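Human:
Take a look at this sequence-structure pair and walk me through the tokens.
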Amino acid sequence: MEKLDVDSTMETTETETSRELSSTNLSFLNKDIIDIIKLFNSAKISELSELFDSCPEDKEEEEVKKILKSLLKRDVTQAVQFIMALFQASNSNYSIRHLKRKKTALFCFVKWLENSNSVIKQSTEKLISEIINFLIAELDSFSDIILIKVCDHVLDAIKKKKDICPQVFDIISSSLQILCSDKVLKADYKKSSYKDEFVTTLLSLEWEQNIAIHIISMLKDISLSKSQIETVSENIINRFDLLDISELPSAVYQLLLITKKGNKNSIITGIVEYFCKLEAANKTDTFEKTKNIKQIEGTIILQICLGMNLDHNLGTQFIKYMKETKTSNLTKFNVSLLLSMAKIHRYEDTIFDLLKSVILKCYKDKTRIQNSVWLNELYPFKPIDISELILSIAKDTTIGNEQVIQSMVKLGFILIDSMTILNPLFSKQLDKIPPKNEEKTPVDYTCKLGIHVIYKLFELHDMVRMSILDSIMSRIISKSSSIYKILELFEKIIKKCSNQIVPYHNKILECIDYISPLSSSMAKMLFEAIIPIINNNMNFKNTVLLNLRKRLYNKDSNSRQNALIGFIILLKSQCEIIKKTNSEDVQNSKNSKILIYEILGNVRRCFKQQPEIRLKLYEYLLTIIHEYEDIVPSIFEIVYSQFKDYLGDYDGNVVLKLSECTEGSDEPYIIEPLPYLLSVLTKAISIMVRTENLNVFSKLFDKCKDLIRQLIESICELDLEAFSINSNIDSTDICLGNLNYLYCLLLLGCQEALIEYVYRIGGYSSESAQTIMSINKRHNELMKLIKDKKKRLTGSNIDSSIFSFVFLSDIIDFIFSNDDIKYQNTMDIYKANPDFIQFLINIINSRLNNQFNDIQPHSDQDVEQYSIIARSLLYTFFENQDFSKPVIDLSNKVNKTQFTCILDCIIIMIKMIIKNYPEKLNEFISSITENNNESNIVYNISLQFKSMFELLISNEISMNSQAINIIDCIGKFSDLSYFDSNQKKIIKNWLLDICINNSIEDSSLAKAIIVQLFKLSDNDYDQELYFKIAKISSYIIGTILEDEEEVNLDFDMKIINKKTYSSILMTLYYNLNELLDEVEWSIEQIKTFLTRRKYKNNSNKDQLKNFEQKLYKKMKYVIVTLNTIEQAQLKGTIAENCIKLLSKTYKVLSSFLRLKLKDYKLIDPEYVEMMNMVSSSLTQDLYEFIFYLQKLDIEIAALNEANKKHKRGGNYKQKTKIVRESKMIPNLIYMVEIYERYLIQLTKKTGVNFLSVVKRSISRDFRIQVNEIDNEQTEEEEEEEEDDDDIVKKKFKTENDDSE
């Protein structure tokens, strides 16, 4: 191509410039340049044309060059006007001379732009834009060759890294558009346009930072083919690292404009993947740099969202990309982009559903890895900490990404609401606070994340605080299913954001108006949440008190109960303030005391309200007098005034007027829970005696104490008739019988309250022991009366004791552990009454079971009482406090019953600690064994449990229920990681030894042992436990093949016998199913990471290969076991579950094949061996198993047909079973054939012969509707390649036709 006749640079020396000026004298044909410009401004085009034409043609080009060079250096404004004048003069007549003149001016100006970016002043930028726009309009007048030369010249300038003015690319883009429309061809490129050559060359060059954005903008304006768009966009994204970070928003904006032409998916994924990579590379940056990056990312996210709002396909492509990659591409940038997109109504529901499912999946994956020993050790990829990711996004909203705040608030509430609906605890027990110490599930973690997100946003941003409070209030008022979690969030906000919450106190007051419909547990949480505001805001406190007073007189019982709860919680808070107040802060303490007296005055009115309100009041007062002894005298005064109304006189003796405590004639009921009232009174007296805090009630106290003494004497000495109880009531009189029964219950409770009172007042004296035994004697008589009448009487059966746990622990400790000689007489009195001791132990056992099952509440203080009780029982009934050495003769039936109850108590306490306070387990075990020197006390206890277990399962003792509890405890110790690998191995070998040598016939006990053995064997790849259990079970049941010779087993497990094999096989099924789930999940994780190419270094590749080989071993383990099971003569549920397990196994094997179809370059020998095992053994024996089941069904059907002659109707269960099996077997066959079709496909792709041991499938008497089943498995089929899928479907159809 002909080269341009222009200088390569514009650099000239000062001498040359002076010479040029002197030779031209700034004139054109002796005409002043200023005059030319005046002619141009006056629009005298004809005169201008004549002026320019008057110049000799051979000197014209040189003159124009000199003038333009001089003007561009001296005065850009005049140069611009001169160029415009020249073009207008040349446009009056189209000729070669005029075109040449314009070409010279154009090249001079372009040449100047290529070298003058640094010298162009800001004031002249607008002027340059005007001339460029002018020249763009004139480009059509130039020939294609000239335009090509201009483009080549600019490419050369880019290559040489000249000081290019970016605005020159506006000329280039317009030139290329003109060339593109004409389809100009270069000599070197006969099959492509010049534009293609230009774009290719441009992309191969290195771009300077100052022109990169303008080049991208230029490429955006050029019409590109589909392949060019892909190449250009990929090239631009690859250059992001070379750009200054402040220029990234402009680059992304230009890229988004390119998406109008196509390639949306590649561009949007390329952008987000770059920023994900940038995020990973800048984790250790300083705060200032991080802040800058976040602000840039926020701008880019806004740009992308704007583009998605204009082009919905862009947003659809990104959502599709996030769904396909599942959790592998969860980064702060991607999640922030999703949250920003959620503000677009079109995407809102889709994105929140996606985020909700992804977050839940992250927690499920994390839980799966944590709960599996082998996955925890070998999983090659780092699980995503979704909690840290989401919370870091919330934190980053203070330095950028403000647009995600509203969406994050919505997401937080969606997580709380949707996850609580998924939790079964909330659907069954909406009015009960969910236990805090239950094992956390992925649903719980997801809900907790929602709480943390909303709390964090409330703390950081005032703009969302009102909307958050509105959402909280609406859920409280409507009693939504998530109310407990909402109240938890509410409490957290108030306690930790005390300063931020101040402007919204009036808003919070609104919830108090709606406490009536709330349950007591909800009201309790609500008042506990707002206590900090009540204590710090006098107006708020007064408003709440006024509201509570009103509700205390409401007709609705629930409203009164909730008002009482509010008063009690407020009372406790004021007592806490007094306890924590310094001696100097007298005023604050005085105010709290005044409020306490006011509250006590209000709750005093509850004594005349419904029975349930009174009962709640007494229960609350019992807790308060134990925690806050300073207000006990005031409580004593109000309780005594209530109690004295129920005291009467019987022949000069003080008795209880039980008739005043009940109402109703036909159906009597209790209106005054007198035992609880008496319990409050007696505990108050005992505390006042101990603290000598009589206050101003000394006379009243003495009088009350004397009345209680007389009441005790009356109970011990008088007959039951003195208390209106008829021991000889007519059994036909149901009404009187019910009333008499209620009197008995009331008196029993009062007796227990007095027993505890006597013990507290009398201490360890023999007199108090004698009195307690006298009351207990009456108690036993009354219990005998209730026992005799219980079967004939109707009504409430309130048999729970009112003994406090502190009393129970103290008296048990005294009876069993006190060695002081001076109390020997007292202990002899107690020990002489074994029925009383057994009564106490039974109460403890019942109380512990109720607490363990969350029927009764428990507190942190109970842990100390557990330790005292367990230590006392262990000290008394076990030698040297060693579980392996009981000191009583268990062959005696009475001793065995007592020992059973004692052991149950100790075990249930250990399980309570494990369940609710696992961090205190070591301390608890050390306390009860009184051994603080051992480093691993839990393991030592487990060794003692081993000996105890062996004793319990012996034929002489046979305490299977307690043995199950011990095995369960050992398993819990292992779950809490109290054993190291060697200790686990010892426990596992012990369990294995039990299985081998003990013929246990209790199926529940056998199942418990096998379950723990499986857990401890989770990471054993080469052991044959599953196979051995399957082989022994098959031997016991019998095999399908009749002609098979009887085989003598080389191994045996006596625990597997005809009474236990079914439960053990079902346990084996469960573990195999769990193992298959883990393998299938692992395959999906490998497939996802292979798709995204997340592993890049050899160590990760080696780790992944090792992980795959472990999966092959696991699957071979499953295949051998199932092959053994399917040869057995299984029946009923065991056979049905085996069919389901086989179907799942083939499904997992198909997943293995699909994985290799995507990455088939390397086939491991272990993989080939696994597939050959399936084809040679599992599949072949499978059809024999199906024939056996069908033959069995025919025999059962014939038997049922014979029975129909004697009975009307058919066997419904048998019909249901037939229908069930008619679906299971075809589904299994389908899974097998799906597996085989993938096997054929993999054989063709890899060249490895997987079909050498495969036998042709047998014919069947049913047709598989392939289309219908394929529709049900759409998600699986979408993962396959389209071409391969079509081939397989055609082949599968052909094979089916052939076999039929």
